[in-house]
Specification:
With about 725 residues, the protein is α/β, with parallel strands linked by helices. About 45% of the residues lie in helices and about 20% in strands. Helix 14 links the parallel strand 13 and strand 14. The longest helix is centred in the first third of the chain and has 22 residues. The protein is elongated, with a radius of gyration of 31 Å. It starts with a helix and ends with a helix. The structure holds GDP-alpha-D-glucose (GDG). The site of GDP-alpha-D-glucose has 24 residues, from helix 2, strand 12, strand 13, helix 15 and helix 16.
Length: about 725
């Protein structure tokens, strides 16, 4: 399902990757990350066509170059790509702005004094890191990739990507709530955050009320015009829709029968024999209301002495964000309170709270879900809360009660839960009481209803519907691309036959010849040369091979025949009589002398990268480079080149595993106009790469424009591959 939707590959971007690195006894260790976001998106990382970009979990200054390389290599085997961040960047962007400014505000809390004082400085770091992410994403994606950005650490990334890729499909999903305006206004940079998110085509939130809050903020801060589920900007429309995240229901159903889960479950049955088990599963997080839950349990025991010795509350608390003061303090406070409660009631060997400050393996966690009589989920605020859903899915005999906070996103869907609200602590106690006393018939019915719902509203359905909506947002141009079917080819053939003055604009690599690992190896076959010669021999035809190749290559390959040639995207062209012409350029004379040393320097640092020197363009090829170095140096190289190029009147363009520098104004579109001015009555242009889009844009409406392969395009038609192009041209040559 996921695979089907991702034909052209998907780039997922989130702060953390599904795999994290830590140092244990000096050695690097890889382990699965734990968070709702990772749980939700992990299936995507398995598909080789997709890429997941994020921070790997250790600060880059704590790593040697060799270790960074090792991390990149290991991650790549899991389709993951690292954005390395220094400790200082992490302090300010992650612990600072993301978790001390945004997180509390988006979870109904307040910004701590220290973060408040530093808000401006932290914001700058946040923007800078978002820019770093943008550089890596741009380096690793193609101009027609689909990009899906996740969560509050990357609010400004969509706009940064949009600047570079105006036609890209960009989605954004927020895993936490969107707060109301009163709360949001604590953040000085609220307008900039919203403007950042609006770089996306589609914004997804968990619930309708978050969507309302989001649109309301747009209106109140005067950022755009809103309509139901839409923001109308001057140049685009952004859809804002609720997509409540689900779980991989089948995985939990399967786990019910797994031998390991059953083994773990048997152990728990023995361990908690004769006891009612109340379960909590959370990260250490002030928004999760952990202290309030312990207090509620304490009150319950005080008010119901008969429960002492008969109930246990198992608290699985995964330590996280311990670098942030509030999170660290919570852990200490929680442990202190648990100790107090345990001391107050313990009658050994029973103790009321079984505190497990660890991330457990999946099988063990699932066994806990199965054993628990009650899941006690009472966050102050939670975007969704997947634990609630996982608990229900793990119950084969439907014998459990979900106690759920009405302030969690999940409460919008799981209406059969026992609802509580930590803002009114008494409801927590009464909720637990109700759960412990619920009759088996009622609780089974309730779990049954919710299971039915969860088995269809799965994570696969969530991702599928997000991607489908994102794709529906296709620009009108994209939706008009038609397959060049045999019937359409027939019509085209007839028009070709009747025309008296025809123009054929053909790209070379990827259109007339397949790509080769070494670009020097893509020499034309005899049959291709014969075909082109035959087409060019027809006096009604002007056949132009319009390529980015240097003129020497083209001259050598097509010596002695009447095909018109364009080299280096239009910097040179050869007329029918074999005479080459230079196209005047405005760039500074001798610009190559300034650019070449830069390219060579980075090629030397990047094993496998090569520099191609053409007369009017220079190319850095990284198709065969080691990915770690390619990513690292591409980002830096692009930055260095862009600033130098501007001063010299040059353009820097990223293409299919290349970075190319050439004078401003030299492009295939400008070149194509030279022949289009002769007003041909039949025009056919075929291309596969981003540079051919310039040709397509220059064509008159009656022209046949064909894009070869996948990807967004301004062309009207599409053909699958080089072989299909050759077949089509052969047919024309026989007219
Ligand atoms: C954010 C939003 C939203 C937990 N302990 C263990 C463990 N987990 C797994 C659970 C669950 C995930 O971590 C936690 O997901 P949540 O949804 O509860 O919470 P957040 O991490 O805060 O996630 C949240 C979510 O994004 C998705 O959009 O629902 O509101 O805050 O999957 O199973 N997994 C293992 N051992 C543990 O001990 N293996």
């Amino acid at each position: 399902m996921v695979t089907e939707l991702m034909n052209s590959g998907l780039i997922i971007v989130s702060n953390r990757l599904p795999v994290s690195v830590k140092r244990v006894d000096g050695e690097l260790e890889f382990y699965p990350s734990i968070s709702g976001l990772v749980t939700g998106l992990a299936p995507y990382a398995k598909d080789k066509r997709n890429k997941w970009i994020g921070w790997p979990g250790l600060p880059s200054d704590a790593l040697s170059e060799k270790e960074r390389q090792l991390i990149a290599d290991e991650l790549q085997t899991q389709n993951c790509y690292p954005v390395f961040l220094t400790q200082k960047q992490l302090d300010d962007y992650y612990n600072g702005y993301s978790n001390s400014v945004l997180w509390p505000v988006f979870h109904d809390g307040k910004i701590g004094q220290a973060a408040k004082n530093d808000q401006e400085k932290l914001w700058k770091a946040y923007q800078k890191v978002n820019e770093l992410f943008a550089e890596v994403v741009l380096a690793l994606s193609q101009p027609d990739s689909n990009i899906w950005v996740h969560d509050y650490q990357l609010f400004v990334l969509p706009a940064l990507l949009r600047r570079e890729r105006p036609d890209e499909k960009i989605g954004f999903f927020l895993h936490i709530p969107w707060p109301d305006m009163k709360r949001l206004s604590q953040i000085t940079q609220a307008s900039a955050l919203l403007a950042g998110v609006l770089g996306a085509d589609l914004v997804g939130l968990h619930t309708e009320s978050y969507v309302e809050n989001f649109l309301n903020a747009i209106q109140q801060l005067d950022i755009g015009v809103t309509a139901p589920r839409k923001v109308i900007l001057a140049e685009r429309v952004v859809r804002v829709t609720d997509f409540p995240i689900g779980i991989d229901y089948a995985k939990y159903e399967k786990a019910r029968k797994s031998r390991e889960v059953l083994r773990e479950y048997a152990k728990l049955r023995l361990q908690y024999q004769g006891l009612k088990v109340i379960l909590t599963v959370d990260r250490t997080d002030p928004a999760k209301g952990l202290l309030e839950r312990v207090r509620a349990f304490q009150t319950l025991l005080r008010e119901n002495p008969r429960l002492v010795g008969n109930v246990v509350m198992v608290m699985i608390v995964v330590p996280n964000r311990q670098e942030v003061a509030e999170f660290r303090k919570l852990r200490l406070d929680l442990e202190k309170l648990i100790d107090e409660v345990n001391k107050e009631f313990s009658i050994l060997p029973w103790k009321p709270i079984d505190y497990i400050p660890l991330a457990l393996p999946f099988e063990q966690l699932t066994a806990y879900y199965r054993r628990a009589d009650v899941a006690f989920i009472a966050p102050y605020r939670d975007g969704m809360n997947l634990v609630a859903k996982e608990y229900l899915a793990s119950k084969p005999s439907r014998n459990g009660v979900l106690v759920l906070s009405s302030t969690a996103g999940a409460a919008q869907e799981l209406k059969d839960a026992v609802m509580v609200n930590p803002n009114r602590p008494r409801t927590l106690v009464t909720g637990l009481q109700k759960a412990l006393n619920m009759k088996p018939k009622e609780l089974k019915e309730r779990v049954g209803h919710m299971q039915e719902y969860l088995s269809t509203a799965t994570i696969q359905a969530w991702a599928g519907s997000f991607m489908k909506t994102l794709r529906q947002e296709a620009t009108p141009r994209t939706s008009r691309v038609l397959t060049m079917s045999p019937a359409r080819q027939e019509v085209m053939h007839e028009q070709y036959y009747l025309a008296e003055n025809r123009l054929l604009l053909l790209d070379y690599d990827g259109v007339l010849m397949d790509f080769k690992a070494k670009f020097q190896d893509a020499t034309p076959t005899k049959s291709l040369t014969r075909l082109l010669r035959k087409l060019a021999a027809d006096p009604a035809n002007t056949v132009v091979v319009i390529s980015g190749r240097p003129r020497n290559d083209l001259q050598h390959w097509f010596e002695g025949n009447r095909i018109t040639l364009v080299a280096e995207h239009g910097a040179f062209w050869r007329d029918e009589n074999g005479k080459w012409h230079n196209v005047p350029v405005r760039a500074d004379k001798g610009w190559q002398d300034q650019i070449l040393p830069i390219l060579y320097k980075y090629a030397a640092n990047t094993p496998g990268a090569v520099v191609e020197e053409k007369e009017q363009s220079l190319v850095w090829h990284y198709r065969n480079a080691r990915p770690y170095y390619a990513q690292k140096y591409l980002v830096i190289l692009k930055r260095v080149l862009t600033s130098t190029a501007k001063k010299l009147g040059l353009q820097v363009q990223q293409g299919n595993m290349i970075l190319e520098v050439r004078p401003d104004g030299v492009d295939k579109g400008t070149t194509a106009r030279r022949w289009l001015r002769q007003k041909p009555d039949f025009v056919l242009a075929v291309g596969d790469d981003y540079t051919d889009e310039d040709t397509f844009h220059a064509l008159p409406p009656h022209a046949y424009s064909i894009k070869v392969g996948r990807g967004r395009t301004a062309a009207r038609y599409r053909l699958k591959n080089v072989q299909a192009v050759i077949k089509l041209l052969e047919k024309l040559s026989k007219s």
